[in-house]
């Protein structure tokens, strides 16, 4: 059953489609859904009617999650994110987790609720074209504030990435990463079925420099002498006073060598952030100067035997599960389900909670992909445990 609320946001909300968001629109045109999915499991029950009312309140305070594409702009409409009631035993193979969201017709955000006898699962899915991990968490945190009857924080800014470029100034020019024709696949061979394969791993460790340590672990499984990493970076770090649900994530590109050292990668990552390389990359002509695919045709021609990007690594940091507690629901697990990216072989997402690191790896579902992806997670787990 799907329930849809129909209360308009508190005021008109319109913002320009940014350069970052246009890049995701292009990726979506390859037929690869560009979605963020956050999953919260816990003990107790979330009442569907109370959830629908909370969705209404949270979206009024964060209207960027109720937009539609109107020409060059995003405009909030009068329809709120719908709620789909899922079977209590619905796993990640359920069709709900694999369907796309259309930013023209909407919705751009939806929820799935699975209530069991003593546990519940809440899934929040949103188009990465209109929001990013931080933006979606603003909305989710207000959703639970509404469920608790607390005042909402809200995130209704209409600024785009140009605001953060100005806030970060001065930004030194950065060299364009060399074009990579593609690195040999390491996660199976043969045709993919078009769906994402998600593998999860919980590691009893929360070391520092987790992104660099994971990158080094991946390097030990390279089948060539080198690879390439993408590290998403939140532009909000350049003006923390702004609360926006927009897609404000830019990219750092790091070269990877076989048997790489985590401290070399960590130093390279810190240096790139100090030099504001994620901001400098926004000044390039992306259609002419990007290291992956310069056209939709090039992206569609990637056949799965080679990838210009070995892995995308994103760390959501420490998650305070108390933000997702209600009088009748106690969260016990939190994870994200990374999307497939046309030019990247795998996407690894991490977060830390309750003294452990939660990992999710996404890749194309193809022959031998699962054991190869499990081997990646084995290597990552060894690296994180060894660092404690």
Topology diagram in text:
Elements lengths: L1 E2 L10 E3 L2 H10 L6 E10 L3 H14 L5 E4 L2 E4 L6 E3 L23 E7 L3 E9 L5 H16 L12 H8 L14 E2 L11 E8 L6 H10 L6 E9 L14 E9 L4 H13 L2 H4 L15 H6 L4 E2 L1 E10 L10 E8 L7 E10 L2 E9 L4 H19 L1
Parallel strand pairs: 6-7, 11-14, 14-16
Antiparallel strand pairs: 1-6, 2-5, 3-8, 3-15, 4-5, 7-8, 9-13, 10-17, 11-12, 16-17
Could you describe the 3D structure shown?
It is a single chain. The chain is an alpha+beta fold and 388 residues long. It folds into two domains: 2-162, 2-Layer Sandwich (Chloramphenicol Acetyltransferase); 180-317 and 341-387, 2-Layer Sandwich (Chloramphenicol Acetyltransferase). The protein is 26% helix and 28% strand. It has helices at residues 19-28, 48-61, 133-148, 161-168, 210-219, 262-274, 277-280, 296-301, 369-387, and strands spanning 2-3, 14-16, 35-44, 67-70, 73-76, 83-85, 109-115, 119-127, 183-184, 196-203, 226-234, 249-257, 306-307, 309-318, 329-336, 344-353, 356-364. The strands form four sheets. It has a six-stranded mixed β-sheet with strand order 1-6-7-8-3-15, with helices on one face. Helix 2 packs across helix 3 (133-148) and helix 5 crosses helix 6. The radius of gyration is 20 Å and the shape is globular. The termini are far apart. The relative contact order is 0.18.
